[in-house]
Amino acid sequence: MSIFVDIEKNLDGFRLNMQLEADNIPIALLGASGSGKSMTLRCIAGVEKPDRGKIVIDGQCVFDSEKKINLPPQERGTGLLFQNYALFPTMTVRQNIMCGARRSRKYTCVDALIQQFGLEKLDKRLPSELSGGQQQRVALARILASQPRILMLDEPFSALDAFLRWQVEQQMSEVIESFPGTTILVSHNREEAYRLCQKIAVVQDGKTHGLREKRELFCHPKTQAEAHLVGMENVLDAQQQSDGTIYIPAWNVSFTPQNTVPNVRAVSVSAHAFTLEEPPSDYLTVNGCITRIMHGPTDAIVLITPQQGSGVLHWRTCNTSLQRDQSIRLYLPLDQIHLLTE
Ligand SMILES: Nc1ncnc2c1ncn2[C@@H]1O[C@H](COP(=O)(O)OP(=O)(O)OP(=O)(O)O)[C@@H](O)[C@H]1O
């Protein structure tokens, strides 16, 4: 099973220009609100029509603007779990799941799914008589009953509270693991995407630079959008000088990078990357003054104004002896600075 997507769609003030290609592995579209993640899923499912492009599922072309192919949603073999689950409100749990089975004509799977999702005692209830987590299980069972080739999950935990979210995520991870086709998860939660998927595409302003191995993406973000989405606290403009050195105006520091990357526009640094002790490898030094300390349950984020710099440095530390207005010298190993090209 595989999916190939190369589509364009112009909406009022927004342009989707999305390319994706994946085999039967779980992948995530990670992006800020309004970046075009849901629209991508809706185009794949056939509930929205792209202006141009092609969508191929499992070798079958389901949309091709040039060849005028546009299969209706029920013929695409896709299962889309909406953010609000979209259950039929006047049908019982069993009837909702039967609707999915009608598409696949595999009615025998209904009882197995009711059992798998622990819905035996709820099967005669209406959706309005269920909790958010139970509704989500019914919606997932209904989708799996249709035996889709692609499973698409649009922010599947957004309607759940934090505790239930974790329980449901564990069950979802089992469903994804046993699903034989491609799963596409849409999320703006990086940790959720990391736990559930193998590859991640960062979506920004309707575009993506393609799928990346999740570890590679988190360890080496290449763009400012990627750096923000993987949780880098320091993302700063940078200037590449003709001699190859990089100048960071916000911190008023320069350094010679360990590897040559053309067209560096910015850098990102995790707040964990700084040390108080001189590191053994190449590093740069930042002198500054502590302007704020924000204590969390396990550590603190310290905001520092660098000497002669115009910006802020974010440092995460467990050191409890720090004081506001204190002068400080921090070391940053050069291999902790990610060079970003846009
Ligand atoms: N029917 C529509 N008509 C015009 N613009 C739309 C329509 N549907 C969505 N949009 C716009 O398209 C853009 C992408 O929307 P989309 O729902 O794909 O974002 P998203 O990344 O899924 O965001 P979220 O995480 O908030 O759900 C947004 O700017 C949205 O306002």
TrEMBL record:
Gene3D superfamilies on file: P-loop containing nucleotide triphosphate hydrolases
Protein name: ABC transporter domain-containing protein
Organism: Butyricicoccus pullicaecorum 1.2
Keyword Cell membrane: yes
Domain ABC transporter span(s) in chain numbering: 2-230
Taxon lineage: Bacteria, Bacillati, Bacillota, Clostridia, Eubacteriales
Keywords, alphabetical: ATP-binding, Cell inner membrane, Cell membrane, Membrane, Nucleotide-binding, Translocase, Transport
GO molecular function, one term: ATP binding
Entry keyword Translocase: yes
